[in-house]
Specification:
The protein is built from 10 helices and 12 strands. By secondary structure, the chain is an alpha/beta fold. The strands form 2 sheets. The protein has a 7-stranded mixed beta sheet with strand order 1-7-6-5-4-2-3, sandwiched between helices. Strands 8-9-12-11-10 form a 5-stranded mixed beta sheet. Strand 4, helix 4 and strand 5 form a beta-alpha-beta unit. The mean pLDDT is 97. The structure holds pyridoxal-5'-phosphate. Pyridoxal-5'-phosphate (PLP) binds next to helix 2 and helix 3. Pyridoxal-5'-phosphate binds next to helix 2 and helix 3.
Length: 325
């Protein structure tokens, strides 16, 4: 149900369940209930994934505290934490396939990491005394429910698979404990990092098809990862075995540009998790952190043979470009 009201009248001068949109609104509450069921916890929605990240970091930590961030996790998460560094938050990076470092106050994992597609060692992280956040944007609750594996919080850019159609910007934190969710709701109300009713409605609609979309995207991504690995102009394929996200390397920046400009079906755009396949060279955003030929592919719902034909066509390089030696 979409309710765009910002106010709800008092009854006999008594405020009811809904008062003012920044506090809570019916569409958001319904979307939080549905997402909470999927992840097995208490969901709190925010205006974006980055907003959810900011809210979680600021509400859990204090100046001088340190976040251990998975190496190779979403580039923007490190950028957000650096921004918060001006308020005294520190970050260190670590290899999430190994135990987190001692002496940190929050452990931040990503399953699988974007765009390196590593999976975290959840058991090792759960044994660490600090609270554990798993950004499961790329796995989705279809493939992974981190709260059942010892995590305290799940973070989603709901902009991606959960909403699923490139038309809603939203973030979510799903908490294991109700008191943590209440604290986040309070923080959200006071800071105004709120999710508006329209994207919450689109999230509700997206959740109805999440399972079928993600299963199909996973099937296609597995198939494409296998075919790409055999292609003579592809140096390396990264795929976690779950979800619709993968990345692969061509020889360099010129070859990556050729692929980006030659695609006909796959959209050359940023983001992931849509019904439409998206591809981009990540070097333009992440700089030296990624190889110049790294292409990130988010597999959509198009027929897999059509996707392969598009990729194979774009991977046919003219003589001026390099094939891997
Ligand atoms: N986490 C991951 C893994 C992402 O890929 C992104 C966005 O690309 C975010 C968080 C941030 O989400 P948003 O763009 O909704 O702010």
């Amino acid at each position: 149900m979409l309710d765009r009201s910002t106010i709800w009248p008092y009854r006999d001068a008594e405020p009811g369940e809904f008062i003012y949109q920044r506090y809570r609104h019916p569409t958001g509450v319904e979307a939080e209930r549905e997402l909470g069921k999927l992840d097995g916890g208490h969901a709190v929605l925010f205006s974006s994934g980055a907003g959810a990240t900011t809210a979680l970091a600021l509400s859990l930590l204090a100046p001088g505290k340190t976040i251990a961030l998975a190496e190779g996790a979403y580039f923007g998460t490190g950028v957000t934490f650096r921004e918060l560094g001006r308020w005294g938050l520190r970050q260190v990076e670590f290899d999430q396939t190994r135990p987190p470092p001692d002496g940190v106050d929050l452990v931040w994992l990503e399953a699988p990491s974007n765009p390196f597609l590593t999976m975290p060692d959840l058991e090792a992280a759960a044994a660490h005394p600090a609270p554990v956040v798993v950004d499961a944007t790329a796995a989705t609750p279809v493939h992974l429910r981190p709260l059942e594996r010892g995590a305290d919080f799940v973070l989603h850019s709901a902009t991606k698979y959960l909403a699923g159609h490139d038309d809603a910007l939203l973030g979510a934190v799903v908490c294991k404990r109700a008191e943590d969710a209440a604290r986040l709701v309070e923080f959200r109300t006071r800071t105004g990092i709120v999710a508006a009713p329209d994207p919450c409605f689109l999230l509700l609609r997206g959740l109805k098809t999440l399972d079928v979309r993600v299963r199909r995207q996973t099937e296609s991504a597995r198939e494409l990862a296998g075919r790409l690995a055999e292609h003579p102009n592809v140096r390396l394929v990264r795929y976690a075995g779950i979800g619709g996200l993968l990345s692969f390397d061509v020889a360099g920046a010129a070859e990556a540009r050729h692929v980006e400009t030659s695609l006909r079906l796959i959209t050359n755009a940023t983001s992931l998790g849509s019904v439409d396949s998206l591809l981009e060279a990540r070097r333009r955003w992440e700089g030296d952190r990624v190889p110049p030929g790294l292409l990130r592919l988010s597999v959509g719902l198009e027929p897999v043979d059509d996707l392969w034909q598009d990729l194979a066509g774009a991977l046919e390089f003219p003589g001026s470009l390099r094939s891997p030696e």
